[in-house]
Structure formats: structure tokens, C-alpha cells
Write a structure and sequence with these properties.
This protein is α+β, with helices and mostly antiparallel strands. Bound molecules: flavin mononucleotide.
Length: about 350
């Protein structure tokens, strides 16, 4: 499967920010491909490092308008020779720090091309098998903070994953929350399905699905209405399976403002932030990391959406927010840039 983007279809609406949206949307799609493969005995291998020009050519794309953004190789698990090892799915591109003047409307294509991998790149990167697990420790441990265990029974998707199939078909973004609280066990179930895929191997789901590089992404959660959980902002520690509290107040008004006045942000029970240290990420993968980070955040967003819909909760992504205000308001460390917001709530 080759996923491509037609830049103007998103840019007419979101202008330069469309570049993020395209990859966030692609991440949601990758989440569906990952999970739907489990119904069909395929194993999707994600490929982010490819020679852009060659792939665009094979697909006969008019590269002024459309380019390839991600590739998924589907291995047939019923064929023993296709039970492949897992490889790292991301390769680095160059990094550009000197820019010409870029005319309005041209940034998406420019940014995408600047992160191409070329067959004549001076340093041809090599593929490596993937380390498992990708992250072995949680990035933030705030001394003396309140810690809440998130260990919980996993969602049971039923015989032949029937409930998961139905949920994929049923999933829609919620347009309005009631503002009522949700239950703590509902939030924990959503976190479990999103971040602990290895809890689902006995349901025939992939214990370690391909992301580009999850070790670069962190999760912060603003809680406005969860029965049994104090309001405030928390860091989610996926390895320890804990919420670590960093702020102690109700943020509804601030969240309304941060989400550009969208009521979804104010009325949600939970507003979840995926973040990354961009400097560190660019040092590892060059400018191409912008693709990887947003696709991975979208992929997590899709798992989160599906768990929420299964539990009859409302859920919606939010791509429109004030980047420069989020950290100070919620106490998210300054090095962490917010990539994507997901909201959860009662409907
Ligand atoms: C990356 C992303 C960003 C989004 N941002 C917003 C947003 O800022 N505000 C909003 O109301 N909905 C937002 N949504 C929800 C979309 O409007 C919704 O997904 C789209 O209309 C398709 O509808 P569906 O999700 O019900 O299939 C976002 C969705 C995604 C995937």
C-alpha cells in the first residue's frame, strides 16, 4: 500500500498547518490498517524510509500536486516465508537550516521535498532490525508527585475480534460533549488499548505494531471530569503504567482558549496531548521526522478513538490549538512541542 497526499486538498483549508494534518490523518489510517490486518492474517510492515523520487515515479504522480508519504508492505502470515523480522520503519533525511523565501501556498511541497531521501544521498542509511520494546523507561519522573496506577482489565473485543470490526465501521468524531464526567475505569481502558498493545496478544492482535518511532512521543493528559480522579494535568508513564500529576486545578476555561475557542476542548472530560522534543527528533531523523512524529501521533489517536467509541464515549481529534501557549498553561515541559490533541468525554 502506498499512501500519497494531494497537497492542495488539505492546504486550501488549513494553509501551512495542513502539512501536520495530512500526517495526523495518515496516522489514523495506519491505525486502521494495523488493526484490520489482524482480521485478515496480514502483518503490515510500515516503511517511512524510501527513495521519494523513485516511488513517485512508479506511481506516475504529478509531483507538483501529489507525492508519496508512507508505504505499508502487507506480509501474508499464512505463508511461512512471509513471517518476517521487524525492521526499523524510519530512516533519516537531511536537515536544512537555510531557507530561500518561500512563496505563499508553496510551503507544503517545499517542506516535503526538503525531507526527501535521494538515491544519491551522500550517506545511504542502513536498515536495522527493531529493538523490542522501543522504549524501556519513562521520560519524566517528577519527584514527590501524586502517582495513580493505570493497570486495568483490557478491553475484550470478543470472538474473532467482532466488536473491533464493528467499532472501526462505527467510529465517528463527536461534535458535542455534555460536559458530564466519565468513569476512571473508562479512561484507563482507553489508555490500556492505546499504549499497551502487548496486553492484547491473546486476542490475536499484534503485540508490537509498527510505528515510526514511538520513543520520541510523550503523553500528557488534562483531566476536567473523571469520577475518581483529581482534576489537573498528568504525565502518562507507559512503562510504569502510571499517571503522574503535574498540575492541580480544573483547566476547562484554559482548554477552551487553547483549542481556539472550540467547545470540544472546554466540555471534554479529558484532553490528551501527544508531544515530542523536536530538537532531539530532528537530530535523530533530520527534517523527515516531522512526517514520522505526526503519523505516529495520529496512529495512537486512532487506537484511542476506537477504544472510546467501543465504550460509548465521545471522542474527537483537535488539530487547531495555540502551540505557543499550551506548555506554560498546563505545565508541560518547554522542550515538548504539542503534535496533536485528542479529546474524550460523555455524549
Ligand atoms: C488530525 C485531526 C484533527 C482534527 N481537528 C479537529 C478540530 O480541531 N476541531 C474539530 O471540531 N474536529 C477536528 N477533527 C475531527 C474532524 O473534523 C473529523 O475527523 C472529520 O470531519 C471526519 O469525520 P469523522 O471523524 O467522523 O469520520 C480532527 C480530526 C483529525 C483526524
Amino acid at each position: 500500500i502506498a499512501i500519497t497526499t494531494i497537497f492542495y486538498r488539505s492546504a486550501w483549508r488549513y494553509e501551512d498547518r495542513a502539512y501536520r494534518r495530512i500526517f495526523l490523518d495518515t496516522g489514523h489510517l495506519l491505525g486502521n490498517i494495523e488493526l484490520a490486518s489482524a482480521f485478515t492474517n496480514y502483518r503490515p510492515h510500515l516503511i517511512g524510509g524510501f527513495t521519494d523520487e523513485a516511488v513517485n515515479q512508479i506511481l506516475y504522480l504529478d509531483t507538483q500536486e501529489e507525492q508519496a508519504i508512507a508505504i505499508v508492505a502487507l506480509a501474508d502470515l499464512l505463508d511461512i516465508e512471509q513471517n518476517l523480522s521487524q525492521w526499523e520503519s524510519a530512516l533519516p533525511s537531511g536537515t536544512q537550516t537555510d531557507y530561500p523565501l518561500i512563496p505563499d501556498g508553496e510551503l507544503l511541497k517545499y517542506l516535503h521535498q526538503a525531507a526527501h531521501i535521494n538515491s544519491n544521498s551522500p550517506k545511504v542509511p542502513t536498515w536495522k532490525t527493531r529493538e523490542t520494546p522501543e522504549y524501556s523507561e519513562d521520560k519524566y519522573n517528577f519527584p514527590f508527585c501524586t502517582k495513580i496506577s493505570t493497570v486495568t482489565p483490557s478491553i475484550s473485543w470478543g470472538k474473532d475480534l467482532r466488536a473491533l470490526r464493528k467499532t472501526i465501521l462505527k467510529r465517528r468524531s463527536t461534535r458535542e460533549y455534555t460536559g458530564e464526567p466519565i468513569a476512571l475505569k473508562e479512561l484507563l481502558a482507553v489508555l490500556d488499548f492505546t499504549y499497551q498493545p502487548h496486553h492484547y496478544i491473546n486476542q490475536d492482535l499484534d503485540r508490537n505494531p509498527d510505528y515510526f518511532d514511538l520513543s520520541l512521543i510523550e503523553t500528557f493528559i488534562a483531566v476536567s471530569g473523571v469520577d475518581g480522579l483529581e482534576e489537573g494535568c498528568y504525565y502518562y508513564a507507559p512503562v510504569a503504567q502510571e499517571l503522574r500529576q503535574i498540575r492541580f486545578k480544573n483547566f476547562r476555561q484554559e482548554l477552551h482558549f487553547l483549542c481556539l475557542g472550540q467547545e470540544l476542548g472546554r466540555d471534554a472530560a479529558v484532553v490528551l496531548f501527544h508531544t515530542a522534543d523536536l530538537k532531539k527528533a530532528v537530530a535523530k531523523y533530520g527534517d523527515r521526522v516531522y512526517r514520522y512524529l505526526h503519523a505516529d501521533a495520529g496512529h495512537l489517536g486512532q487506537r484511542l478513538n476506537l477504544a472510546a467509541i467501543y465504550l460509548d464515549l465521545g471522542v474527537s481529534g483537535i488539530g487547531g490549538f495555540f502551540d505557543d501557549r499550551v506548555n506554560e498553561v498546563l505545565g508541560i515541559p518547554v522542550d515538548e512541542a504539542v503534535l496533536y490533541i485528542s479529546t474524550l468525554g460523555a455524549m
